[in-house]
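name: query_chain
kind: protein
chains: 1
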Amino acid sequence: MKLIGRIDEKKTFEHCLKSSESKLIAVYGRRRVGKTFLVRQYFGTKIKFEIAGLHEGKLNDQLKHFADTLAKYGWTEAARHKPDSWTEAFDMLERFIDALKRNGKKVIFLDELPWFDTPKSKFLMAFQNFWNSYCTKRTDIVCVICGSAASWMIKKILKNKGGLHNRVAEKIRLTQFNLYEVELFLKEKGIKWSRYDIAQLYLTTGGIPYYLDAIRKGESVVQFINRACFTKDGILTDEYKVLFSSLFDDSGRHYQIIEALNDKKSGLTRRELIEKTGLPSGGTLTTSLNELEESGFIEIFLPYQNKKTKTLYKLADNFTIFYLKFMKKQNFKTDKNWGNIVKSQSWVSWSGLAFERLCFAHIPQIKRALKLEAIESSITAWRKADKDAGTQIDMLIDRADRVVNICEIKFAKADFTIDKAYAKKLRNKTNLFSNIAANKRKNIFLTMISTFGVTNNEYHKELVQSEVVLEDLFSV
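structure:
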């Protein structure tokens, strides 16, 4: 397949190729997000040497693999002599590069870098020396390092305090596709789904390229989800079990955090998270939260006008949330299948919350639909505790032009209708929030974000200032 989307990443790569200096690029992100595919597809024949670490390979295995790969790229000396250390291995790589033609940038792609760093191997020391003592003295090297083991990439590369400190020219955190890119991807595969069906897919699996690539031509969205998630040999049946263990050291903490956050859809403060999980407060918890955020599994949210101590941590990964709700307790001996579940009230209720997450993943598109590109604004939320039920606004757009958009998000199969009872709730919510906004002399605009729009009745005319529909979220 051709390379879909990744506009900013391609601009970064282009900048590095045109630079008058050698560049070190770190690409990282969650499992299955397409890191290797991106690098290979963009650089193509400019890659003069590519190698991936061996999963659970020992030092001797890794060094032999390195030498064998060099030999395949034409450095015959490597076939005759296996290096005894990483220093010697990178010395061989330097001589290989020296033998290449001098014209044009030469891309060196070291994939799954963390797997090379076996205990006591001194891999990182040798790599640092390779970059600092060899590559930086040249002007024609683009070295791309990549790894799914987020713990290692963040600690050893992105936050390196030693020889690689400030050496990484570009840090690319690769995230899931947005709806526009998912639609392009499916069209490239010849799959013709409506945008409503694509949205249903996004609610369950998100925009992860590997998951999307498993969709078969001629399948409906219900058939795909059932096959991938609710059959014994489905490609996503066991995905959750390896998702975090493949990314993080001591992944038990990450699972605890994820499942605690899953129990509170509106999010937890750090203090609440500690109380719920029993994890000790301190650097270890901070590291785990940072790793989950960097990998796109959680997002950090500051409620409207609250202090940083009220910062909320919320789950953001669609597939993880879908798994915990519908897949975790499945029994393949029963007749349970997605075709039945999707008709249930449980799905209807859950899809509304999932659509909220979809909207938060498409903030630029929402702002564009509201023509806010030129107006400074921030996204936040608000909740008011009440002894009976309380009031909550899931998305606020706080604007520099003295306006706050209160966004009501509704996922429906047809036009959404504001009836008398719901209109009363909207008035109450708006009135409660206006007492706070009045202190900053802000105007309140009610914005409806829905799949197919809102019926134009008397309540719509009275309350709604602006609308965003699903189609708007498919913009670039």
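note: The chain is about 45% helix and 15% strand.
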